Amino acid sequence: MRLLPLCFALLISTPAFAQCGGSFSSFVQSLKTEAVANGHSKAATDRFFKGVRQDPKVLNADRAQGVFQKPFIEFSRRLISQNRIDRGRSMAKKYDAIFDKIETQYGISRGVLLAFWAFETDYGSFQGDFNTRNALVTLAHDCRRPNLFRPQIFAALTLYEQGNFDPDRTTGAWAGEIGMVQMLPKDILENGTDGDGDGKVTLKSSAPDALLSGGRMLSHLGWQAGQPWLQEVTLPQTFDWSATGIATKRSVSEWAALGVKPRQGSLADARLPASVIVPQGHKGPAFIAYPNFDVYFEWNQSFVYVLTAAYFANRLEGAKIYNAGKPDAGLSGAQMKQLQRKLQARGHDVGKIDGILGAGTRAAVQAEQARLGLPADAWPTAALLNKL
């Protein structure tokens, strides 16, 4: 379910060797030259790249991520089933000692990792069958995001030299992630942890290894120990909708003064910065997002995925089903692209015209709603499209 370039790996500046495109064989040779220049042995490099091939199925998967165009309510209902909730709670009991260790060591609540585990591989039942080396080289050769994937190739080469990667047999997701919680090679090098005490880090077959490694990675990405991430709230009818969205941060006490109330339990520490989110506008569900919510975007920058994963973590820990409300109908994919073109023509930076309601499109929608006197909740509707 990963939407890339939205994952743990960080973008880096392009090194001298980092070309893309052209002849695939020439590209592979440039990778081998760079690997040796960076200190990898020639013999290991030759063995690692022997038999590497371009995988057209990887490119097809990369370009076919239409599920992320779905609105939050539809997307979350598609991903969250009673079976996934029941299995998640069963896994929480089965690996209770590991989750206790993660909570003690990193302050990450078990629901958070359970949700990722569920969405990424359905609790390890399907981890992907793409050859990882071929996937990484294919995506690095493709000129869409070479700076993301090229470093992962050399990380995989390092894992191979350590005896922890088989270039011919290691498989995973189409974007090169490996194991139960889908980690890229560079993340495995930096955060791979032996959770079951056998002296090895095996993320494909050991749930303790995968979960502890995932917890360590989230901690390194900035997770604040013991703090919440997301909470459903109710908002007054007179709420200033232009203040919604992850870009607007106010203290919890300020939001409370504006009428933000928890639907269950109590709000977090009054001093914490937070955002109020209405993913399908002022007539739909509403949430308050705390600082740890931002860490989710280091895993995946799809807003709808992040919100669903954060909400599912709450559900696994006993939260109520959100109040869906009666949001205005959204736009079709074709209408979203039409809207993006109109917004772009008005000078807004919406990024690629892809029909996905991303951060740039949301900000532009909110600005135009405010200009036109509509509720500025960043939810695009036919009314807005018609007015534009």
From TrEMBL:
Molecular function terms from GO: peptidoglycan lytic transglycosylase activity
SUPFAM superfamilies in the record, alphabetically?
Answer: Lysozyme-like (SSF53955), PGBD-like (SSF47090)
Its taxonomic placement starts with: Bacteria, Pseudomonadati, Pseudomonadota, Alphaproteobacteria, Rhodobacterales
Domain named Peptidoglycan binding-like is located at 332-388
Every copy of the Transglycosylase SLT domain together lies at: 24-313
Superkingdom of origin: Bacteria
Q: Which residues form the signal peptide?
A: 1-18
Q: What is this protein called?
A: Lytic murein transglycosylase
User: Which Pfam families did the record assign?
Assistant: PG_binding_1, SLT_2
The GO biological-process annotations, alphabetized, read as: peptidoglycan catabolic process
Q: Which InterPro entries match?
A: Lysozyme-like_dom_sf, MltB-like, MltB_2, Peptidoglycan-bd-like, PGBD-like_sf, PGBDSf, SLT_2
Task: Give the organism, scientific name.
Answer: Phaeobacter gallaeciensis
